[in-house]
Specification:
It catalyses: O-phospho-L-tyrosyl-[protein] + H2O = L-tyrosyl-[protein] + phosphate. InterPro entries: LMW_PTPase (IPR050438), Ptyr_pPase (IPR023485), Ptyr_pPase_sf (IPR036196), Tyr_Pase_low_mol_wt_mml (IPR002115), Tyr_phospatase_low_mol_wt (IPR017867). Belongs to the low molecular weight phosphotyrosine protein phosphatase family. This is Phosphotyrosine protein phosphatase. There is one protein chain. With 176 residues, this protein is α/β, with parallel strands linked by helices. Helix content is 41%, strand content 12%. The chain contains six helices and four strands, in the order E-H-E-H-H-E-H-E-H-H. Strand 1, helix 1 and strand 2 form a beta-alpha-beta unit. Helix 2 packs across helix 5 and helix 5 packs antiparallel against helix 6. The longest helix is centred in the C-terminal third of the chain and has 28 residues. The chain is globular and about 40 Å long. The C terminus is likely disordered. It binds 4-nitrophenyl phosphate (4NP). The site of 4-nitrophenyl phosphate (4NP) has 10 residues, from loops.
């Protein structure tokens, strides 16, 4: 089976396209190919834009491929994605208020940081310098691996030799 993950921030030009690129890259590094990753913003201000040039620069420095056109979260995301991961509490609350949540949502909606014990948000780097984007990158690497550990499992998801029941259970894991 394939699991699908939507990473969400405010503008969908800084944190979430980086999170999308990093999660896909970390999954690939584990040999996991049956994962679909996308990103979106809770706001509409940057629809159609490329990722912020600082996000592109940091991903380039780390050799992480990135290509995304900003879009806003839509109601169908709540039925088409298994997981929707919010960058911070403000975006989490916006997702929880979203009309899509009331229309047969199947998605597990969580703060991405909740996959680590410190439960930290990804701070908005937009008004700062490149250092902030590098910090976001490092956090995305840690959160990607925490997510993959918990949801996909170290072996059961990426390793096709394991039994399907375990894969299914891992993919359908529920909110805490
Ligand atoms: P993002 O960052 O939510 O990580 O994409 C931001 C991008 C744009 C703005 C704020 C945050 N803005 O105010 O335009």
């Amino acid at each position: 089976m394939t699991i699908s993950v939507l990473v969400v921030c405010l503008g969908n030009i800084c944190r979430s396209p980086m999170g999308e690129a990093v999660l896909r890259n970390e999954a690939l590094k584990r040999g996991i190919t049956n994962i679909h990753v996308d990103s979106a913003g809770t706001a509409a201000a940057h629809i159609g834009e490329d990722p912020d040039e600082r996000t592109i620069e940091v991903c380039g420095t780390k050799s992480v491929p990135i290509s995304h056109s900003a879009r806003q979260v839509r109601a169908s995301d709540f039925t088409s994605f298994d997981y929707i991961l919010a960058a911070d509490g403000s975006n989490l609350r916006a997702l929880e208020r979203h009309v899509g949540r009331r229309e047969g949502s199947k998605a597990v909606v969580r703060l991405w940081g909740s996959y680590l014990p410190d439960n930290k948000p990804i701070q908005d780097p937009y008004y700062g310098g490149l250092d902030g984007f590098t910090e976001v990158y490092e956090q995305c690497v840690k959160l990607s691996n925490a997510f993959l550990d918990e949801v996909a499992g170290k072996k059961s998801y990426g390793d096709n030799s394991t039994d399907g029941t375990r894969c299914h259970r891992a993919g359908m894991e529920d909110t805490p």
